[in-house]
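This part of the workshop introduces the protein records we will be handling. The structure tokens are whole numbers drawn from a learned vocabulary of backbone shapes. The record below serves as our worked example for the rest of this section.

===
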Amino acid sequence: MNTSASAQGYVADPRNETVLVYVDGQLVPRRDAVVSVFDSGFVLGDGVWEGLRVIDGHVLQLEAHLERMFEGANSIALDIGRTREDLKNAIRQTLDANDMTDGVHIRLMVSRGLKSTPNQDPRFVIGKATVVIVAEYKSPRPAAKTKGLSLFTSTFRTSGPDIFDLRLNSHSRLNLIQALIQAINAGADEALMLDPRGFVASCNSTNFFIVRGRELWTSTGSFSFKGLTQKAVIDSWQSKGNIVREKDFTLAEVYSADEAFITGTLGGVTPVVRIDGRTIGGGLPGAVTAEAEEAYKDWVLR
């Protein structure tokens, strides 16, 4: 399948074929990295995860990522069975074993663990939580930055915490995958999603911003995930004396925006130039988006 147009797309790197993967304390070759078919994560997507980025030997926003992971695990009564320091050491062990210092994306995954039988009930878990760390060389596709992405507004809506709390980085992502499939079939790179009231929420895997003048607008997060890259963009832009509005806004306001962009761990700040077949701004990555990206880079690497 062609993934060159994916918002999560990256430049292929042959070094990834020989990376060692951390599986419950063991570092194993990629081809041997497996979990049981009775694992809670495979059976029902019962677990939490974090995506982290490594630049110049620095794991970006590491403390914030671990804070979110433990908060999410606590909310679903999942005992990770490791301390924050344990997970930091495991991440460092994985990076050192692969001699990785830059241009790396990490997926830290924790499931509730092995079950005696495939069912919903967490009381059938036997043993401790499963911890997997996949570190890969990943650089965002240059074309995504220079040409920008296209979005398609999905008919699938985001949800509130009483239905499915998107602030929880759960392995369960089917609703968001369905939205992305719609966008792909419409010829777009990523799905733009509305909340149950019809206001713009987020994309299926990234947070969404529009630019109006020099103001950045993004959703309140009431019906979407609160990305750490999104927060870094907000904080860095405000630190320069600029305005960010976390507010409800509509598709009509999106279509008339001066610029638009998405934020995520892998791509950082990535411009958006088309939404639902409509050209945004001048149809090219904008100057304010570029400025926001530079402010973000300075902020997370300081």
